[in-house]
Amino acid sequence: MKTLTKTLLATSLLLALPLGAYAASEAAATPTTTTQNAAACPAGGPMMNGKMRGGHHKMRAPLTAEQMKAHLQQRYDNLPDAQQKAQFIKDLTTRADNMVQRADEMKTFAKAHQ
Fold first, then answer.
1. Which pLDDT score, from 0 to 100, does residue 58 have?
2. Exposed/middle/buried for 86, CB within 10 Å: 0-12, 13-18, 19+?
């Protein structure tokens, strides 16, 4: 059994070393722009060219009611056809209903534990 283990280990090393060396040489030959992208991204990562994933950021202040209305109106106006606008309103209504339900559950929990 020890001989088989040693043979498999030696074989895997012999196969992996040339592949690893090839991958390393390819990585060294390919220019990267991580420093440029990292500088553009406020989160410091090179992945999304400065765009935050999901559009949320911890440091952003909450929107006022007027800002929220203006933002929703802009999103609604940018939709090209009536079907997409109807779907947007349907999804927005569903999302708002879920948020109200969760807020009610939080209020109930807070009242129960006061």
1. 62
2. exposed
pTM for this prediction: 0.46
Which residue has tokens 């009611």?
Answer: 65
> Do the beta carbons of residue 88 and residue 79 sit within 8 Å?
yes
Q: How many CB atoms lie within 10 A of CB 80?
A: 7
- Residue 29 has a pLDDT of 67
CA distance 60 to 71: 15
Residues of the chain with pLDDT under 70: 1, 13, 15, 17, 19, 27-59
Whole-angstrom CA distances from 35 to 9, 41, 62 are: 38, 10, 31
Asked if residue 36 lies in contact with residue 50, where contact means CB atoms within 8 angstroms, the answer is no
The CA angle 44-51-37, to the nearest 5 degrees, is: 45
Question: What is the dihedral sign for C-alpha 33, 37, 39, 43?
Answer: negative
